[in-house]
Amino acid sequence: MPTYHDHIVDRYLKGGAFHVETLTLFTSAHSMIQKARVVQNIDDILQLRELFDRLFKEKGIEPTEIDVLHKLISNNYEYVTDDVLMISAFELYAKGKLLAENFVPHVIDKPNCLSKKQKKRPVHVSDLKAAQRRGDDVCMLYKTLMCRTLLKPKYIAIIAIQGEHVEEIKKMNKRRNFIHFREPSAYDIKIPYLRACEYLSSTIEARLNNIAQSNSMPASLPT
Question: What pLDDT, on the 0 to 100 scale, is given for residue 42?
Answer without folding.
Answer: 95
